[in-house]
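The protein record quoted in full:

***
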Amino acid sequence: MPLLEPKPEALRPGAARTPSVDRVAARQAPGTPEPLRGDLVALLGPEKVLWKVSDLVKYASDASPYRFVPQVVVVPQDIDDISAILSYAHGKGREVVFRAAGTSLNGQAQGEDILVDVRHHWAGIEVLDDGARARIRPGTTIVRANAALARHGRLLGPDPASAIACTIGGVVANNASGMTAGTTRNSYRTVSSLTFVLPSGTVVDTAAPNADEELAHAEPRLCEALMALKAEIEADAGLTARIRAKYEIKNTNGYRLDAFLDGSTPVQILRGLMVGSEGTFGFISEVVFDTLPLDRRVSTALLFFPSLTAAAAAVPRFNDAGAIAVELMDGNTLRASVSVQGVPADWAELPKETTALLVEFRAPDESGQEAYERAAAAVVEELDLVAPVASVTNAFTRDAKVISGYWKARKAFVTAVGGSRPSGTTLITEDFAVPPARLAEACEALLGLQARHGFDAAVAGHAAHGNLHFLLAFDAAKPSDVDRYAAFMDDFCRLTVERFDGSLKAEHATGRNIAPFLELEWGPRATELMWRTKQVIDPDGVLAPRIVLDRDPKAHLRGLKTIPEVEAIADPCIECGFCEPTCPSHDLTTSPRQRIVLRREMMRQPGGSPVETQLLDAYGYDAVDTCAGDSTCKLACPVGIDTGALMKDFRHRRHSPREERIAALTAKNFKAVEAAARLAVAAAARIGDRIGDGPLETVTALARKAVRPDLVPEWLPEIPGAAARKLPRTSRTGASAVYYPACVNRIFGGPEGHHGPSLPQAVVAVSARAGKPVWIPEDVAGTCCATIWHSKGYDEGNTVMANRIVEAAWGWTAGGRLPLVVDASSCTLGIAHEVVPYLTDENRELHRELTVVDSLVWAADELLPELTVLRKTGSAVLHPTCSMQHLGDVEQLRAVAEAVAEEVVVPDDAGCCAFAGDRGMLHKELTASATAKEAAEVNGRTYDAYLSANRMCEVGMDRATGHSYYSVLMELERATRPGAVTR
């Protein structure tokens, strides 16, 4: 064992706990039992089988209120693996559930036996016919697909609020729609073709010319049975009419029986049935969508009404005016949204009865936009709107930033309201639709029903389509609360069906939540046809039993998850999964959601239980060590949960007092440490030049084993040589700003083979060239942004350096009179924001007087207008860092790059590189995983320049792509340098 290996006990929950009724049983502590584990390892290989109890727990939860612990999780890489899994399940009498993003709200992505992760290894998009169609793999998020299509002026029809995280496979399998899809732009209407694997293992490509012939050969009984069901349905005029009527409004409850009416062959029928089948009919391995025009001329308003019913009554008017979206948010939703960054704080003061409509019109051109705006103005003129707080304008706008803020608030409905629920309560999201003309009446009835059952739910939804969502919070550990919820559901379902002839699930799909009420909505005849369809396609019941179809009248009450209280920073989490795609470690170990899920299971356990012990043993590496600490999860989370900060706190808890003292000592003596580090880098570079990098890698590997992998960096061949010992000479006299070269740029030099000015020389030169000279203080050595200590959870060292840099910066800038320009985005973030909690009261006052400016902002806003670009490189690919995302500097990176390159590309898969200072040297597998997709995209072609603005991120991308990344400011210096220039 390494000398300084941290003890898992340091993270054992210390609070007194009452074991939860739904805790993982002690018998499951060893993980997947034999022979299941051994069989699947032999079948698929060990790397595709997740069997530890920590693996099972982290996959047991999703965005729904349910929790089922699988026996095993498998991660297939191709259709052959899928077929092998299904064949094994048939032979052994086992059950299979497919899970992609885990954003489903009704438990359909959870299984109790073999759970198949089809997010990993299943991403990718091929744009066809100049964007008119797109071939997309099931693990691709909607946002990622639309990013590729946007370059062609196209987009997908489905647009669920969870588009940042939900994947194509789940969207099609649930027929999820969203804000604008309605009944005409959803998957059922816009999917051109599917490729899927039936439970038998048969692969069907519905676009193949001979698809029906091949299916008839492989599955003759299936084809015969499907055509018989079609004939039976079509022979019943009343049933046919009923099916058609049910899909005049949004409906995802049960199977798409209209597939039997719309399809004329078995393959066509299956293509329709697969949409909305929730993984119960097969695995969708590829989807070809017919795309829609991306109308870029947008006019949007957030209009406030005195009541829910008043807002609902206005919806038909905007529909008639041509609005593409009319979204409703009630008072509870609006007030909860103040937790979302950018939402006006005064929304917290809105009267409870206040309701808003988010109304949007989209047009392809100016004339169309103006016509829509005139129609909208005519509607607004007839409405009795209210402005209860100062931020309310009740006006249409074209301002993209304002519009984005409106949508951010709307899309955060579930997470914002869920985040404000009482601690320890479970959140349930209900989803129903009524004929749009009866929306106001349905709202009034819903409010009355909630009041009778003691719920104060939040209501929002796609009002244009008569589709509303509401959230209920209750304590699943209290039988009385569960009984209250059950009574409410009985009354709600009867109300929706019997009074409004509505849909009990408009877009979230049946799942487990509404399965007991399927017959109430559809009647016995149609429901029995659904059971028979399932029997025809999956006669052995291998796929997703108890999802969609369940004869247990209390199935919706089974598996409700308790939500034990965890650390305050993470406690609001509703496990929605929005954070997962942005997390650098989500393909390697755990995601932010999974880190919280695992922590909650620890809290469910009695202290010292075998399960808790196993979870703690795995948590150190899987959760704490492999967290990049970049906090991009905070940006993706609608309520700003910063799991990265929690992991840094856990790192701190694992430190011994001795480690904290040593870390503080390095901060106090950082001038000497900095000089030693520069000398060490220079010496290592010389050794590498003479005998290669192998010996250095061997030595550092041995040191890591002896001391601790999370403390001793591994030598990487991409690590640059040392920076010059002296910084450029500058003058304080006449300086427009103080230039602070980050310690990383004082220690490490530029990329190998670079013969131009260093980054500090480039910043000094280009600033002078623009007539805005900068001054580098003589005493910057020994100072740092404190991120070195902050990222590792060394609070004492962090406190020492945070206060030192603020005191120094205040002096350098003459009490804040000059801006402080920082040449590494992570260091800008550190000085501008992250040091604040560690400052003394006096230094917080000094910090408030500072203006900390990232070098990108300095270059884009202050220098570019004064510079003459004399030459441009041909093409440049950019790596926006996570710190730029936090600072909002990505557009400045692009602006500078566009000034110096003819073509600028930001990869669609760009994300945090996870190098995170030195974490890429501590856990190189983390950076390899985090950058894999971006690197593959970058290496799909060649570029003349590879640009970023953070040295260690550049090193990370060097390693990932094999190309030398460097600061865009160095390219700006080259582009504006007088005289002849060579690279």
Remarks:
- The radius of gyration is 29 Å.
- The chain is about 45% helix and 10% strand.
- The first helix runs from residue 36 to 44.
- The first strand starts at residue 49 and ends at 50.
